[in-house]
Write a structure and sequence with these properties.
Helices cover 63% and strands 11% of the residues. The protein is an alpha+beta fold and 440 residues long. Strands 2-4-5-7-6 form a 5-stranded mixed beta sheet, with helices on one face. A two-stranded antiparallel sheet has the order 1-3. The two termini are 67 Å apart. Strand 6 and strand 7 form a beta hairpin. It folds into 2 domains: 229 residues, no CATH class; 176 residues, Histidine kinase-like ATPase, C-terminal domain (Heat Shock Protein 90).
């Protein structure tokens, strides 16, 4: 049997296992939230660099141990790990990391392992430093070499460079130098390198080293991309929430100012009472802007609002009845949740009535949910109008949209109405505690 062919099959098997170990090593680390945060941070302080070393060095040391003790050559990623640490963490991380992971081989009389690994890590850190945009580091992927012909064409014709090619060629060059150094020294035990039968297999060894680094960078970059998308979604959610809230607050303010305008000519004392109540409401709005508030605070807000409306309509035309479960007062609800609903009931349901308008407000806990019901005996709505964004009006549609953004499918907003009899609105949301509301 052709001995070189047998050696070639063994080498290919070793290189495939080596690339697989590099992928498993990279995938294992991204399961840790702290490591993902380190990847997402480009400008790291000293503590973060130490944390990066603590994550990367131990698995690479384990690989060296398995190679030294069990003769599993594919586990040794000393050169690739040193380059990776320098490329991701910079010169200091690359220099220290390369030195640390080669200490054990150095103790086994591989005298060149420590200086060679430290030099590789430092070189990768210098490459990172010379790259103007550090984000270009993350373009180093396992299939980048396929774009070399196109890159050469653009560089010759348009003089355009691709920064990610620099780490690619540097990694290949350092692996070639590593192999040459391992072969040139007199003692074969001074520096470990996977040896091959001919130059054709040498190319595969170099390619495997490049792939080990590129696959790790690719896996970590995918994680960074997911984190970036998650952050953008959170920013988008906040922007949409702010936009919706900014629609509700002016809507309420303009209606209240219209009330003051209509009263000031006929009853200045009553107008003064409305202004005082309005000042309390505005003071609460200006004091802080939160997504969630305690139900107790939301009810106080509604009391001020309803006092204004009772002054406006008169107690014979507007009566308020509340059935509040004491256990619900400390539950957290979206701020400005109740006011648009109450306003909608008064404006569209009770205002057309000549007298006897009533609003019933009830709260209770049920199966881990906070249930809120608001009933009125107003004019009600036709099925056609009820189907138009929950009864029409900017306030009601925004309440539903805010609940959808905050709770996803974990809320219920049920509106039932019959013409001439009134409307009932029932909301069920998770009964959040303080910490849970802050997390949202």
């Amino acid at each position: 049997m052709d001995t070189s062919f047998v050696e070639g099959k063994s080498l290919l098997f070793t290189l495939v296992l080596k690339v697989g170990w590099a992928a498993a090593f990279a995938a294992l680390l991204v399961r840790f939230r702290s490591f993902r945060k380190l990847l997402f941070t480009e400008n790291r302080d000293s503590d973060q660099k130490v944390m990066l070393l603590l994550f990367l060095v131990p698995p690479l040391v384990v690989g060296s141990v398995l190679r030294l003790v069990g003769s599993y050559q594919f586990f040794d990623l000393t050169m690739e790990g040193s380059f990776l640490m320098g490329l991701i963490g910079g010169r200091i991380v690359g220099l220290l990391g390369g030195s640390l992971i080669s200490l054990l081989p150095f103790g086994f009389h591989e005298w060149l392992s420590a200086p060679a690994a430290a030099l590789v890590g430092l070189s990768a850190g210098v490459i990172r430093q010379v790259m103007t945009d550090k984000e270009d580091v993350w373009d180093f992927g396992p299939f980048l070499f396929l774009g070399i012909p196109q890159w050469l064409w653009k560089m010759i014709r348009y003089r355009k460079t691709k920064p990610a090619m620099l780490p690619l060629f540097a990694c290949a060059a350092l692996e070639v130098g590593w192999m040459a150094l391992a072969r040139s020294i007199r003692s074969p035990h001074w520096l470990f390198s996977i040896q091959s039968a001919n130059w054709g297999y040498d190319i595969l060894v170099v390619l495997s080293s490049v792939m080990c680094v590129a696959i790790a960078v690719k896996i970590w970059n995918n994680t960074r991309t997911e984190m970036n998308l998650e952050q953008n979604q959170q920013l988008l959610l906040k922007a949409r929430m702010d936009a919706l809230t900014s629609q509700i607050n002016p809507h309420f303010l303009f209606n209240t100012l219209n009330t003051v305008s209509s009263l000031i000519r006929f009853d200045p004392d009553m107008a003064r009472g409305v202004v005082l109540k309005l000042s309390n409401i505005l003071r609460r709005l200006l004091r802080k802007h939160e997504t969630f508030v305690a139900l107790r605070e939301e009810l106080d807000f509604i009391d001020d609002y309803l006092d204004i409306e009772v002054i406006r309509f008169g107690r014979d035309k507007l009566q308020i009845f509340k059935e509040i479960d004491e256990e619900t007062l400390d539950a957290f609800v979206p701020s400005m949740l109740l006011q648009p609903i109450v306003e909608n009931a008064i404006k569209h349901g009770l205002a057309p009535r000549l007298s006897g308008g009533q609003i019933h407000l009830r709260t209770r806990r049920q199966d881990g949910k906070l249930a809120i019901e608001i009933d009125d005996n107003g004019m009600g709505m036709s099925p056609e109008r009820l189907s138009e964004v929950y009864g029409g009006g900017i306030g009601m549609s925004n309440v539903h949209e805010r609940l959808r953004l905050l709770y996803g499918d974990q809320f219920v907003m049920d509106i039932r109405s019959r013409e001439g009899e009134g409307t009932q609105i029932r909301i069920e949301i998770p009964a959040l505690a303080v910490a849970e509301s802050a997390a949202l």
